[in-house]
Amino acid sequence: MRKGEKGILIGSVVVVGLVIAVRFMMGHFDASDDKGIPFYSTASPELRMAAMKIYKQENCKNCHTLWTVRDMMRKVPAPALDGIGSLHDEQWFYDYFSAPDPQQIVPSRLKEEFRMPSFAFLSEQERRTLAQYMASLKVEDWYFPAVKKDEYEKLTGKVFNQ
């Protein structure tokens, strides 16, 4: 690194550090507004383990995220599953997983190779386990409107109007 480049790098670091320090002192990083992580599950440990076994077996993680930070570089824009149980009940999930063509229940604008596959081939107990677990994935009430809007628009490509 040349002398001039080092000076620019050091100057940039100092400026960024000063901006962060000033914003912190002015209260722009007030943690009192942080309500915490809005997602939780009502599932028992046994249900969680059984459902996660199916989740891994069927490679759901190739398209969906669950209990993790979303990778913005992902090529498949499938919905995150955190909080999805606040959108639908257990029977809805069971019907969805049992449908020969899930697109009939939730039309998708994704390319065909990225669309939700049918899980009708799974045993009834496996579909019920997945449905029960998905229904257990809740989101705090204060966060729900934003999740509902975002997931609806992502899935349908339409503007959410409540």
Walk me through what this model shows.
The protein is mainly alpha-helical. It folds into two domains: 1-33; 35-156, Orthogonal Bundle (Cytochrome Bc1 Complex, Chain D, domain 2). Helices cover 44% and strands 4% of the residues. Strands 1-2 form a two-stranded antiparallel ribbon. Helix 2 (45-57) crosses helix 4 and helix 3 (90-98) packs across helix 4 (124-136). It is elongated, with a radius of gyration of 21 Å. The mean pLDDT is 82.
Properties at a glance:
single chain; 162 residues; mainly alpha; Cytochrome Bc1 Complex, Chain D, domain 2; 2 domains; two-stranded antiparallel sheet; 5 helices; 2 strands
The name of the CATH topology of the largest domain is: Cytochrome Bc1 Complex, Chain D, domain 2
Instruction: State the low-pLDDT regions, or none.
Output: none
> What's the total helix number?
5
How many domains in all?
Answer: 2
Encode the helix/strand succession as letters: HEHHHEH
CA-to-CA gap between the ends?
Answer: 56 Å
User: Would you tell me the structural class of the helices and strands?
Assistant: mainly alpha
CA radius of gyration is 21 Å
Quick gist of this model?
The protein is mainly alpha-helical. Helix content is 44%, strand content 4%.
Note the topology:
Elements: H1 3-25, E1 39-41, H2 45-57, H3 90-98, H4 124-136, E2 137-139, H5 144-156
Antiparallel strand pairs: 1-2
Helix pairs in contact: 2-4, 3-4
